[in-house]
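Record format v2
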Amino acid sequence: MSDDVRIADRPDRLTSETSEGAQELSRRVATPTEELGREVGAVLRLDGVTLDPRQVDYERKDDETTIINMGPAHPSTHGVLRLMLELDGEFVLRTKVVIGYLHTGMEKTAEALSYVQGATNVTRMDYLSPVINELNYSLAVEKLLGVEVPERATWIRMMMSELNRVSSHLVWMATNGMDLGSTSMMIYGLRDRELVLAFFEKTAGLRLNLNYVRPGGVAADLPDGWEDDIEVICNTIEERTDEYDQLLTGQPIFRNRLIGVGAITAEEALALSLTGPLLRSTGVPWDLRRTMPYLAYDQVDFDVIVGTYGDNFDRYAIRLNEIRESIKIIRQCAQRMPAGDYRSQDPKVTPPPRARIGESMEALIHHFKLFTEGFHVPAGEVYSAVESPRGEIGCYLVSDGGPKPYRLHVRTPSFVNLQAMPLLMRGASLSDAITMISTVDPVLGEVDR
Amino acid sequence: MIPLPPSAPPAVLCEDALACDGAFFPTREQYLDLVAALKADGFEMCVDVCGVDYLEHPGRALPAGVTPTRFEVVVNLMSLSKRQRVRVRVQAGTERPVVDSLFSLYPGSEAPEREAFDMFGILFEGHPDLTRILMPEDWEGHPLRKDYGMGHVPVQFKEAPGPR
């Protein structure tokens, strides 16, 4: 009968089952000074000044503040993000991010998959920009392999990345609108994303986790009539982006919720290793597509959007305008798409065409080797990075010369950007906390991997 | 290859372009000084910190003079002003891997270092809050170590017995 005790009568049981121990926010008296400083958002290191973070809120004692949990199952945390907040009334004093609820060991899994299979694994990390994940992984593998990718493959990759950036930003517009109470924006954003996803389905066969960009090129050529599809997508989204601009940008409630909220400076952003729209909102014109060009981004014309104040409104404006810039790049890709192969013809990397297997023994052997063992990558290590919609996504790959990665580490922008939370939250009201999560735009799939 | 900043301790360099793409190999004692010198030299951002367990790949290419250990900490720094990247690889030890934390130089290294601790058990001295970050608090072992077993669920596609 002892199992029938209600959980409400046994609070200790409830705590022991859900506790994350030292990962949680603890009382001030039990927190070391350095960590307390981090939790209140002290970021910059001033030479010669030793600041005791206990002095920051010296008048506040543990029994005057409340520690609350937000998440991991909160609808506005964009997944299973758990924030522990210390509140003084309605205002946030300390923040600690507790993550790991979606951890599935994808870096460990990658060590058991061959290089060919690896793309299916990484595409599931950032599920809003799968193409860019695959691209990042493929570029790292190709750098170690020394494989040349045909020009058409490069331009297809670029066009698909930009389409993916558009769809990712549209989802951000949708969820951000929803967090701020604009449910119509949510419906519009998700509706327009469908346009892009339908094109992905037509091209790669899948809507979300495409496995389209692979080491050596892309999985399939663009479908017949793709120019018309791209034209429709570009025209529609461009027109509708103007509508959303009109719908949200001037809206007084929307503006009041965003302007001046969550402002950070460029120094703070650099110290916290923030990248992507968070860094650009502070006025730093850092976009890997421009500053460290990969693919053929140095041959297309686009603008890097930067903000001024580093607040939530700047981050909104950057993402909105990045949709327009991406459309510009997609148009140029469609115009200048070169003819030729869509994947490398190196038989060590690329499987032979289906028709060849029946007639050529060599093709059969290559096909068999490629799908049983996979190709061997020379020993070495490499770091390559691309610009994802959330910032710099990097891939650190170590090969021991075998057919599987020895170590695959993905530097995911959301994981690093979440470190800005204590700084952004400090002094903000609890309702603004939702806006902060939203404008950092974490994707929990890549935070926890 | 990026030249060593003048204030840096004499660290070993690597020439082989493919094997390590240009990296510094400081000892554990030189590590923090070298990174501080690189930061002063214009590397404003610490992009990434990660660990590698070389248990099953001991014969990796390293420049002469570097004693390989089982664990290695790899730091990627970036200079926005010079548009350069540089990698720092430090041998962290075999039995009890421990290196200095970069938190005092780059606050943004906090979460990646915690991840390296969680996944490899590499200790970072001076880190403000070295707790697990991705795994549950009561987890035993460090999953990305090479001697940590892989879980495996057997899959039977045909004629599998029903759930009950």
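Residues 106-411 of chain A form a domain with the Cytochrome-c3 Hydrogenase; chain B fold (CATH 1.10.645.10).
Chain A has two domains: 17-98, 106-411.
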